[in-house]
Amino acid sequence: FELYEGETFAIVGESGCGKSVTSQSIMRLLPKFSATITDGAIRFKGKDLRHLSEKEMRKIRGAEISMIFQDPMTALNPTLTVGDQLTEALLEHRPVSKTDARKAVISMLELVGIPNPQERLRQYPHQFSGGMRQRI
Question: What pTM does this model have?
């Protein structure tokens, strides 16, 4: 498939038909030992993603290409606080200080209706409801 600037593309289908595997393949999130792309290209802004280093891919993932995982129970790392995870994403992809990243995370949590965001930053995913985890 091809997707051009300004277009929206949806992958839909039955459970188990390969939607997630396709998306994870594009983003190179599948383990190399179990998944190999043998033909074709994955072009983004003129570059074939298959040939980029892991460091180059980390700059693109989350900043230019994102994936929202359906299951809120597995999308967040249970061993890290919600604040650490959200702040890390901003620090990885934007030129901001830790203080500014934390302020931005608090604003985002407020925007999606998470009560007491300053306090909630120190909490772990299991301390949030399923709906809150989806919003996070």
Answer: 0.61
Q: Which residues contact 118 (CB under 8 A, 6 or more apart)?
A: 106
Question: What is the C-alpha separation between 28 and 23, in angstroms, rounded?
Answer: 9
Q: Of 46, 53, 26, 23, which is closest to residue 37 (Cα–Cα)?
A: 26
Dihedral angle of Cα 125, 59, 21, 44, to the nearest 10 degrees: 150
Contacts of 60 (CB under 8 A, 6+ apart): 44, 49, 52
**pLDDT of 68 above 80:** no
Q: Do 130 and 118 contact (CB within 8 A), yes or no?
A: no
Give CA–CA dist 82/84, Å, rounded: 6
Assess contact for 66 and 57: CB atoms under 8 A: no
CA distance 92 to 54: 14
Domain ranges in the chain are 1-67, 73-135
13 pLDDT band, cuts 50/70/90, is confident
The Cα-based distances of 90 to 31, 38, 114, 116 in angstroms read: 25, 33, 18, 20
